[in-house]
Every structure is written in C-alpha cells, then in structure tokens.
Amino acid sequence: MMQLLERVSGAVFRGAGAISLGAVLVFMPGTAAQSRDESASFADLAQRLSPAVVNISTTQTLKPGEELPDDDYPDDDDANPDSGSGDDPSMPFDEPDPGSDAAPGKVQSLGSGFVVDPRGIIVTNNHVIDGADTIEVNFTDGSTLPARLIGHDPKTDLAVLKVDTRKPLAAVAFGDSNKARVGDWVLAIGNPFGLSGTVTAGIISAKDRAINNPGPYDDYIQTDASINRGNSGGPLFDLAGQVIGINTAIISPSGGSVGIGFAVPSDTAKQVVAQLEKFGETRRGWLGVRIQSVTPDIAEGLGLKSPGGALVSGITSGGPADKAGIATGDVIVAFNGRAVPTDKDLPRAVAESPIGAKVPVEIIRNGVTKTFTVTLGRLENADGEQDAPKKPAMPTAKTVVLGISLSDVTADLRDKYSIPTDLSGVVVTGVAGDSDAAAKGVQPGDVIIEVAQRNVRKPEEVKALVEAERTAGHSSVLLLISSVSGDRRFIAVKIEGK
Fold first, then answer.
1. Which pairs with CB-CB distance under 8 Å and at least 24 residues apart come from 202-206?
2. 474 catalytically annotated
3. What is this structure's pTM?
4. Domains in the chain with CATH codes
5. Which of 157, 224, 238, 345 is catalytic?
6. Tens digit of pLDDT for each residue in 200-233?
C-alpha cells in the first residue's frame, strides 16, 4: 500500500473518512478499556484545555506567475551532520486553500496552535506560518487577534507567535515527554479541515520514532489519536493536561487520518520555544563533525565488538572537534556524560548544550577508548558550509576493484568531477551495476580516501589493501568515501568470493 507522509496543517479536504481510533478503544466492549470506570470521560479535561487551543489563519500573496508552494521537501543528505539530518522519502507541505474569501493572487491556510503564556505567547508549527504575509489567531470565544512572528525554527518545525491582549489568556504548560510511556492515553485538540475545537483521543503508539523528516531532530511521538490537515501546531495532551507533543505530520495514503500521526516531543520543543521567545532565534551547540550510524558490517571493519555509537565520517576544519583532536573514523560513544547508543542520539545532546561549554567527548579509536575535551561552537554560525553538489561525469576506468573502476586524482578529473584541490585519494570513475558497491551508493565522482582505515593515493594501493583483507578472512572491507555531494561516509563493501 502506498504511504504518504504529510504535514497536517491547511483546510483542504481530500475525502478521507477520519475515525478516532482512541474513541473506539474507549468504548468498544470487550477491550482492556472496560477496566476503566464506565462513566469515565475526557469531557472535563477537554473543557479545561480547549480555551488555550487556537486556530491560526494565514494569508500569503503570490507574485505574478508564482505557483502554490511545492508539496515536497527536498531530499536530505545521506550522511548525517552533527545537526542530525536524515534521509527524506517525501514529506509534503499542506496545500494552501485559495478560498472564496481570498483576494486575487492570495492564498489562505489554516492550522492550530496553543497559548503557553497568558500574556499572549503562542506555539505552532513553522510550516503553518511559513511564507505568510499576515497571521491571525482565532480564539474559542470567537475573538480574533493579529499575531506577529517572534521566531521560527525549521529544524524542529516550531514557531512562536505573539498577540497583544488586554486580558490574560487561558494557557497550558509543557509536560515531560520523556516520562510518557507507550500505551498512555493522550488527547489532541485542534482545527482539522477548519473544524475548530475538535477533540480526539488515543494512545501513544511509539516513542523516538524516526520518520525521515528533513529536519535534523528525527525522534517523534507516534499516536493513533486522529489528527488531520489543520491539526498542525496543535497540542497533544497527557491526562494531566500538560502538552507532551506538538502535532505535525501523518502517514496517509489518502490525506486523511489512518491512525498514524506524529508529534514533536515536548522535551525537544521546550528549549527551542524558550530560545525563540528570548532571542527570536535558536542558539544550539555545535561539535563540527559529520556522523553516520555504525552498522554490523562497519562495526566488523572497525574491529568493534558490537554496533553502536556515532561514527565520525568527516570533520569541519578548524571546528570544535578538529581543535580538540577528534578524527575521522572515531566512534563517539558518550557526550558530556550522556551515552550515545546510536548516531541519532548525538545531535540532540550537542544541540542542547550551551555554546562555549567545555564538554568531555568519549570515543573509540582503533579499539582504544579515549576522552577529549571540546569547546562547543554555535551551530547556526556553521550552517550552510556544505559544498554545492558535484557535477556527474562519464566513467574512465583504469583499475577495477570490488566492481569499482578507479583512477588517480588528475587535474582533468578534478575539473571533471569538481574535486576540491585539498582532497586526496582515488577517484571512482565507474561502478558495476550488480556490485555491492553500487548497492551501497558508490558512484562516479566519489573519492576513496581510506581503505581499512589506511590512506590511499593510488588505485594499486586500494587493490592491495582489499586483497590483504581477503587474505585475512574478512568478508567485507571498510572504505571512507568523499561522495559527489561533498559528504564523507564510511561504507563496508563485500569482498567478491567471500
């Protein structure tokens, strides 16, 4: 079945018949829900919380010849930076609604939000207000106030708004999403399809869910509480009435709820919201590394007992990690006293650390555990340093190893593949389509920097090291590659005949 991962703001109905799975669980005879008091209801909770949940209406002016915003996010990089990006299958934006009330050349869209400060501070999704010329906030009492954007963060898809009010507004507080458990009841309140004040109930279906979003912090709460287009930016409450998530996306083949929705955890949101409110921008720590996961094949190539940690596939020259002595090929297993079980655990730990803090970073290098002290920089100052994508080129083979055609780095090939002048190694000029290297994403224009953690400068060196790994009985060989996109990553390629 085709699945579509969608943002859930907007008021465009796509014919999806949304059923609240949570409501079915509450009232269905013969289920575990019978153990609850039959008179139990979410009514008191909904009545108390609803006044703090708002509808957000935006208007955007299209320039002459400009079309509606593209529904798809761009694909992200294969190798993760320490800001934590991941691969993106496609997360369409919600379609704006031209609407009969919109002036010519304007589009309108609807979303949700919630008040976190009685003085008029409101939280929503960044994609709800992205590109908006005007923003209005509609309250449950029927009043409407214009809002101004205080700050926004595309990386977590969060935005903070401010309305001027003469009276204190009903507000809600963030809870602790870390304490929430799979199976706990949750309540979603929002504005699906323009139906304001809609309340749905369900459970937490999963935590720390990676949904391959384009942002760097891919650890969402999954819920079966029914959320649809227009719910974006709305709160996900626990039964104590605290916000433990901000509803942001659904998986759906039709555009409507099928019981798989995702919310930004409150523990991710709290710090971001506080920074946006105070500074109008985020201020995240920066380590200056590019990282990737440690797969079983890579763990074998590194001589590790088991997969785990974050493998450093690249270092920003002059960055904090570089200055501290961390190197490509190191496996980060702890950061500032926090374990790093997987590569996705590092970005959040780094981002939450203060700029300028001196933190211990524990790594494994050649089987030996070492600790470095790193003075963190600021992530926002380091953004945008990646090189532009390299130009594709036709293969020109010399030596073939592992199904990979190799050549020295010549002046012509540097120009042909846009290889940086300070990059040394062996150029990939072709890859056999049926090879494991092709399956692992090796392509013409890549530069092999290391084989089995040894630097290479000639195709003959690659061939000799691969043969040495074969003789040693290894089933795969570890390569460090600078890809055509400019990223560095480790891959373990199977050795033919093993």
1. 202/20, 202/21, 202/22, 202/25, 202/226, 202/259, 203/22, 203/25, 204/180, 205/260, 206/182
2. no
3. 0.65
4. 1-280 (2.40.10.120), 285-382 (2.30.42.10), 399-494 (2.30.42.10)
5. 157
6. 999 999 998 887 665 567 789 999 999 998 999 9
